[in-house]
Amino acid sequence: MGIQDILSYVFVFVLATFIGFEVIRRVSPLLHTPLMSLTNAISAISLVGALLVLGAEHDALSMVLAGVAVTAATVNVVSGFLITDRMLKMFKKREPGERGTSS
Amino acid sequence: MSTQEIIAQSTYIVAAALFILSLKWLSAVPTARRGVIAGEVGMVMAIAATLLLPQIVSYRWIILTLLVGAAIGIPIAYLMPMTHVPQRTALSHSFGGLAVGLVGTAKYYLWHQHEPERLTTFIMAVLCFEVLLGFLTFTGSLMAFGKLQEIIPTRPIVYRGQNFVNLSILAIAVAIGVYLTINPAQIGIFPIFIALALAFGVMLILPIGGADMPTVIALLNSYAGISASAMGFVLENKLLVVAGALDGSSGFILSVIMCKAMNRSFTNVLFGAFGQVSPQALKAEERTVRSASPEEAADILLAASSVAIIPGYGMAVAQAQHKVRELFDQLTRRGIDVKFGIHPVAGRMPGHMNVLLAEADIPYDRLYEMEDINSELHHTDVALIIGANDVVNPAAKHDKNSPIYGMPIIEADKARTVMVIKRSMNPGFAGIENELYYMDKTLMLFGDAKAYLGELVKVIGQEK
């Protein structure tokens, strides 16, 4: 990685952080728990890096480490997205006075 | 650049855009589920494009580990009760930290052996940062999980010189990291570096009590994100940099919100060991309170025209949210206006109360944020507090000696009548007396929240 590459990565990082701040500031406190599980699923994109190490099959050590990493990241991807959707499905609007059993 | 690589990089751009849209759509309930779909599509695209890259020579272990991960993840998502969402979140931060730490370690060993020229000073510095943060998030979040699950005592575990020990561990770890950055060939001390990172994670969370969990979970969320972003630098993958930065800023914003909601600073949360029972708080003061039976409470509620329910972690512990829903239904059916006032740090993670009440089928337009409910409370007939304590303590407003002085509270004391469902007069988590309980307009409803609400609902149901 040359200095130019380093700078371009820093550039991407800074911009993404700013976008993150702007987007997440607008999330209603009502949804802070789903927000946390969603960002958690998204950051489990580290799966991509783990897959590349595991699939390259260099040696036993790197494969064991990457294998555990793939498993852990997959748990986060799968459970993160599914539980976020499960939570969001529960948020319903209802007219005041209506019976609770209807949805 | 090979064709596959161009495809992969282009797909990563689309995936990054989808992740940003995903968070943007999450900002409000009507579009939120679309946000989840955008995130899922981005994730699947990124994984598929990666699997087509020529570096991957075999799929056998990939398929196996992906299947094992899914087999663990699916039951977690569907079987985890909503009261346990903080635990699941802590666990997922720890998995995220673990994955990042392990990949960083694997990369270091591989490069050290095969391509030592790639271990430049910059890469080595970022790699050490990634591994340190990844592994401390791993054990720190496991500790948070243990405390939330009450495997480990939830009270702060403190000893003399704790901050000195913790900071020393961190300082030694950082020193080794700097040494490795300058001498990447010294692979022998790398395991020590990892061990210190793991130890620091444990030590960092030991002194943190249950009431501080919302802040700590948000902070660990931020760490997990930043470590993933650092991993993107090491692996030269901009999608990872972006996704990690989004997660990192999200966790950071949430922890700032939590800190503000408790009027405390980061350092105070991490090193202050809030919630130790202070000696003077243990002095039992003999003051009288008024208590009421479910029948009396029912009469007061039925005579009201507006009721504000203020839930806290105690409601979650007692699993009382469905009984709360029944009470909500009975009161609204009688034309009584029922609102819920949610303090930002009610519960064990940001937004926890909202999810529990939504699960119990309470419409989300009845859930009010602290500022909004406070502007209503002075013309509300009854404030019903269920399992909340410090977040309604008026001492936060005027008692300079109170440990919670300055913390924004839900001003339940402004309502015409205050009713508090509580097990006993034991002071709450922080061991702070709550003067609200001794006010003339306050009625204490003693009992388990679920059982008491059950009685209340039954009595109201019998009234014509």
Alpha-beta content class of chain A? mainly alpha
What is the rounded distance between the termini of chain B? 78 Å
Helix content of chain B: 55-70%
Q: Please report the total strand number of chain A as a whole number.
A: 0
Point out poorly predicted stretches of chain B. 274-284
Number of helices of chain A: 4
Low-confidence stretches of chain A: 99-103
What topology, given as strand order, has the largest sheet of chain B? Answer: 3-2-1-4-5-6
Total tally of structural domains of chain B: 3
**Rg for CA atoms of chain A:** 20 Å
Main beta sheet of chain B: 6 strands, parallel
Beta-strand percentage range of chain A: under 5%
Strand portion of chain B, in percent? 5-15%
Order of helices and strands of chain A: HHHH
How would you characterize the largest beta sheet of chain A?
Answer: none
Structural class of chain B: alpha/beta
Q: Give the overall pLDDT of chain A as a whole number.
A: 90
Q: Report the order of strands and helices of chain B.
A: HHHHHHHHHHHHEHHEHEHEHEEH
Largest interface: chains, residues each = A-B, 86 and 121 residues
Radius of gyration of chain B: 25 Å
Helix content of chain A: over 70%
Give your account of this protein's structure.
The complex is a heterodimer of chains A (103) and B (464). Chain A has 103 residues and is mainly α. Chain A is 74% helix and 0% strand. Chain A has a domain at 28-90. In chain A, helix 2 (32-43) packs antiparallel against helix 4 and helix 3 (47-56) packs antiparallel against helix 4. Chain B has 3 domains: 1-79; 86-271, no CATH class; 287-462, TPP-binding domain (Rossmann fold). In chain B, 61% of the residues lie in helices and 7% in strands. Chain B has helices at residues 3-25, 29-51, 60-79, 85-114, 121-148, 162-182, 190-205, 213-235, 238-262, 266-271, 279-282, 294-303, 313-317, 321-333, 352-359, 370-377, 395-398, 449-462, and strands at 306-311, 337-342, 367-369, 382-386, 417-422, 442-446. Chain B starts with a helix and ends with a helix. Chains A and B meet through helix 1, helix 2, helix 3 and helix 4 of A and helix 1, helix 2, helix 3, helix 4 and helix 8 of B.
